[in-house]
Amino acid sequence: MSARDALLDAYQSLLQEAGERATTLTAVAARAGVSKGGLLYHFASKEALAAGLIARLDALVEEDLAQMRAAADGPSRYYVRTSVWTGGALDNALIAVAQLAQESHVEAQRAMRRAREQWLELIGTEVDEEATAHAILLLGDGLYFDAALGGGTDPAEPGRFSPEQLMPIVDRLLRAARE
Amino acid sequence: MSARDALLDAYQSLLQEAGERATTLTAVAARAGVSKGGLLYHFASKEALAAGLIARLDALVEEDLAQMRAAADGPSRYYVRTSVWTGGALDNALIAVAQLAQESHVEAQRAMRRAREQWLELIGTEVDEEATAHAILLLGDGLYFDAALGGGTDPAEPGRFSPEQLMPIVDRLLRAARE
DNA sequence: GTCTATAGTACGATAGAC
DNA sequence: GTCTATCGTACTATAGAC
């Protein structure tokens, strides 16, 4: 793995576990196993780290959308199924960027909005009824909210959700929307 | 209004609009119209501000639970209806405390978990099926996530939800769970 | 009860050796 | 490509006048 990726990983995991405040250049460098000077060779500023993370998220969302389009069980079920916390690359990037977005980082907010719009659009190809499409999107948002609150590290926490539990609910929403 | 409340309001609104990083003692004091020294007379430390905000949230949640218990349309419908962003006192306090929680503030995380558990418990008195109760809780979480991402200031933003849109969905979930 | 002044610390970023 | 040393800034909190 390149030093650049290691630094981006350290930045991402710190954002997620400790928040934006605690994610200092010193802390990121330490976690990646380099000095602050070493970090700043690869990312000239803290803003460059944020831009790198957002670019990573954009790429992962693109991949996710392709899989969502191809999902055998349809986009809605794919979306909810994969919004449950798995610790996957997209989950982690999304929670980290959400942290930036909440600190009023404009580009992070834009990236989050972009991703949500595209997910909603794909859900819309399966369910005509707008309210149902929105409700399905909200279920995913709720799952990310829960993951973001706890730092997203403990998958066995009470109140955490499983796909097995949630999929019948999605089925009902889809069925009801078709009637 | 007491100076204490004015300072707490300033702290809360800054957390919400600008994030934890930008919520410095100087910024809070300026928004409340006092000097830094004036602020520190009422709240001896930044931690005291956080504790004050969490206490405020606890009180508002308590009030909300009482209204939720007494709601004519039942706790589930009340919960979703009031989770849509209204700019009310509870909404604002909740988003602000969520910001603290995401910066790894342990007491803020505890307060969020406490509130969610109590809401879920009340929803559970109406809905026996656990999966449905969780789905309803998730809808509310999703609504707060959306509000938190944008800073919660613009109620007319596209992708925002209305109670009119969401209530039929809740009705369907409740009906389906009873069958 | 509110102010100014300032101490002490930690941050982001630069400079230059290797 | 990575390091150490350091500059300038901004933060939390204290001290003491009014």
Automatic annotation (TrEMBL), chains A, B:
GO molecular function: DNA-binding transcription factor activity; transcription cis-regulatory region binding
Keyword Transcription regulation: yes
SUPFAM superfamilies linked to this entry: Homeodomain-like
Domain HTH tetR-type, first and last residues per copy: 1-61
Annotation: DNA-binding region: 24-43
UniProt KW keywords: DNA-binding, Transcription, Transcription regulation
Protein name, UniProt field: Transcriptional regulator, tetR family
InterPro entries: Homeodomain-like_sf, HTH-type_TetR-like_transc_reg, HTH_TetR, TetR_CgmR_C
